[in-house]
Design goal:
Layout (H helix, E strand, L loop, with lengths): L4 H24 L1 E6 L3 E3 L4 E8 L3 E3 L2 E2 L3 E4 L3 E3 L4 E2 L3 E4 L3 E3 L4 E2 L3 E4 L3 E3 L4 E2 L3 E4 L5 H27 L9
Parallel strand pairs: 1-3, 2-4, 3-5, 3-6, 4-7, 5-8, 6-9, 7-10, 8-11, 9-12, 10-13, 11-14, 12-15
Length: 168
């Protein structure tokens, strides 16, 4: 099996083009994903997506994508703009005066503090209070426990010896 030099060269050029174009895009629109370490975006910065688990996010610049925090809070200060959604689970969201969010804002297990001058183009959904976190996190374990109990009951029922017939 022979591979022609021209096809191999074409494959190499195409691969380099994809790699270099991806690197140039990543240099202009950085995405941040962090666990346990806060994220801060300055007033003159532009980023793509922000994701934080067990930490908080503070934005003063422009976000071209979504902002997501689990177990932390999100603070969006003026003159920030968010092109995507703002979502937080088990934390709070604060949208200051003059902030613009082009997508949805969702808060589960926390509070939304929104200035009347803040603009949210999409839907605003809140399931406020910390009380929502416990049922949401415990529900899968309760269902799993019930399934295990059912299996144990079925196995014990199948293993019971049958009663001998009464002698006449």
């Amino acid at each position: 099996m022979r591979i022609r030099y021209g096809r191999l060269q074409w494959l190499g050029v195409t691969l380099c083009w994809f790699v270099l174009s991806g690197l140039s895009f990543g240099a202009t629109n950085r995405s941040y994903t962090k666990i346990g370490q806060d994220i801060s975006v300055g007033a003159n910065e532009q980023v793509a997506d922000l994701t934080c688990v067990g930490c908080s996010i503070r934005v003063r610049g422009q976000v071209a994508g979504d902002i997501t925090a689990v177990g932390g809070s999100i603070v969006v200060e003026s003159p920030a703009q968010v092109a995507g959604d703002v979502t937080v689970v088990a934390g709070d969201v604060r949208l200051d005066q003059g902030v613009k969010v082009a997508g949805d804002t969702t808060v589960v297990g926390g509070d939304l503090h929104r200035d009347p001058q803040a603009t949210v183009a999409g839907d605003v959904t809140t399931m406020g209070g910390r009380g929502w976190v416990v049922p949401v996190l415990l529900a899968p374990f309760i269902v799993l426990g019930l399934l295990v109990a059912l299996l144990v009951w079925l196995v014990q029922r199948a293993r019971r010896p049958s009663l001998p017939a009464a002698a006449a």
